[in-house]
């Protein structure tokens, strides 16, 4: 019988010794693989299998290659994301856009401004149908007898200082207000949410009726122009203050657009009130003025303090204090000094 030479092979592995014999031809020799590829039974018992990474192969032994992640800049944006990018460029300075986009979503939708618009449209249709008119361009007796309209001789009914915003005098009146408040209100509510937009809108409505009761005390009042002008005033102040941080061409366009719209509307109100001799509806420019002042004060604080604690902002208390003082003065004026019956 032929004899073979046996060679003892030992290799250290973490302080442990193991013996292995490999037959190479007529002799036994040490394998060529490194000792790092071997583990003792004790070491294998200490390994947590759940923590091991799976082999990058499928059940047939083919290697699996994970697809590289698409860069954020090359990723296609959805419809909602594109809309929010446009809103951030339109409404916010550059240093706040990234923070807005991180938490922006279309849920919940801008519910306040949508509900207010639906309510105003529903009231307009109700009075147009309930009190048949010869034409819908202007509504006359139906709205002036409404319990929602602000009338000087019914000013003791305090809800009229707010409810007049639901009543409009004609198609031109309501279409203009709805278009403006939707164009401005929806983007503003996406950025600042419903509470802030609602507070600014309602402060403009109240400021408009109170200003009219003081400076134009014998005139009735309908329409949501006070709230719309509050949104315009707040947005205008935000555009002016943050002009250097916005896109220059966009900033100039926004400011000029607001000046042209407000100037044209005020000019039309002055013409209808003081120059035109028709006996139709007299437009109250005082309510517009009260609304825009409320927007440039209260609205400026809410719309410029994005992602900030309002209660810690001294501008907030200054504007709120001034608005409350104006309300108190207007209430006392209507009780003791108003020439209205």
TrEMBL record:
Domain of life the protein comes from: Eukaryota
Subcellular location: Membrane
Bilayer disposition of the protein: Multi-pass membrane protein
A GO term for molecular function: serine-type endopeptidase activity
Top class in the EC scheme: hydrolase
Residues in Peptidase S54 rhomboid domain copies: 156-304
InterPro entries to which the protein is assigned, alphabetical: Peptidase_S54_rhomboid_dom (IPR022764), Rhomboid-like_sf (IPR035952), Rhomboid_IM_Serine_Proteases (IPR051739)
Protein name according to UniProt: Rhomboid-related protein 2
Source organism (scientific name): Channa striata
